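name: query_chain
kind: protein
chains: 1
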Amino acid sequence: MNSGQKKKNDLHCKLCNVQLQTYTQSKNHEYAVHVDKVKVFIGEEITEVTKINDKFNCIECSSSLSTYITFKNHLKCKHDGRCEIISNNKKKRALEDIDDDLTSIELKHWKQPNPQINLDEFDTNQPQKVLKVDKNTSIMLASNTYSGSHKEKENSIMLTKIGNIEPIILTCESGKNYHFLTSSENICEVLAEQPSGSWSLPAFFPQTRFATAQIFAGSILVNESKVLLINCTEPYGRSKVVEAHHERRVAALIHNSSFPKQSGRYGWITSVTTKEDNATKLKIGTKLSNLLVTSSARIDMHSALAVEIGPSTNNFIGSNDTRIYLNIESLRLGKILMESQSTTCIESANFFYQLGQVRSKFYCRSTYTLCRSSSTFASDVAYMPYTIWTICDYDCGNQSDTQCRMFSRFFQSIATQVIKDGTMAKIKIDLLNDLQNKLKDGDNKQSIHDFIEQNQEPESILIINNLKLNELLTDIAHSMTTTLKQANAVVAYNLSKHLFK
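structure:
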């Protein structure tokens, strides 16, 4: 055997020992078979995506790609994004054991748990299996950049120098290490005292989104001679960590942001009109969130007393010069909500009417947050905007069990389970079978049939982080658009009669 032939035969995969014929085949094999976890960059957002059932699931459009190369090209061409390899399948981690997350996307939502780490379990009298790592490695593990790019690693090390913080390692009895960053003074005290007890996150205020939505419901905006009454608002957080439907910050939309550009008449609170999703939207923007106006009425003398229902507001332009007048009753109700961290809804009735006007991202916990608020002028459900969650209540004189009504009741069942069980919520397969049997032949019925056939769970399936179910629900939600517009036109008419009688 000549040297060339020997070199060719040496081209085998180091992870699974399969024999390859060429160097190109070797690299393609590695990217296609063994890359199982990537870090996705879209705009300023960074998300870890794990291969599930041999597919990378796109976080933006639910497309499924088989290989790292095709997934990378998809992100670049469709979403102006990129991705980097985090780990290879079957590859051993040298510094610590990390259990791969079984979900495709790691998501955190508005109400974070309050983790309690009991330090009593760390017996300092027992010999510890201390895994030696250098200072820079500990910094990267503490800041979650160890598997990141070279630039990310450099930045994390530089930030510790700028902030004058150092790494410290907590080793539990099993030998697992936890890496943290803190000041030199704290490190000296911890090492000297070896404290035991429980740890918790700093205080945060999850009730803020509920209180804010309530406070601005019923407010009046004034621009010169134009006056707008806001009847319904939906709050959306700035960060993807707390809000799946957060306002996008990609380059193409950054000029449309509701984020206050400067401190104005009301500090860092502004009103702004944006154009997105083929709609003109009115928002009240703060540093932490924005409030989408979903029901409003022009009440000045020069208007046609126009009432608008839905995400579009075309008869008023928000700006930094807009004056905002709050409703005293809404302010009182908002203060009550703000005083309790246990707040989980706007009111203890009409739960489905507190869900937002969404048609996507049903795999996220924050989609099911009960924080849409209505003014006292439009507190009757007959004057509230219809959504996929409530269109089954639409009283149009047609009592037949229409497809849209069936879909709405199905969405109500899903929301009920998530509100009740959180991230562990499940939907029964029998409910999907029942829905499929009632539908007339068409695309939606076929999609439900295909989903049931592909499903491997015999009785029930998880809702949160289930991208395949989300794909089905998104298609169903979009098919309800026409009926929703018709129903909300009736709401606008009824509300107009109510306000200007």
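note: The chain has a mean pLDDT of 82.
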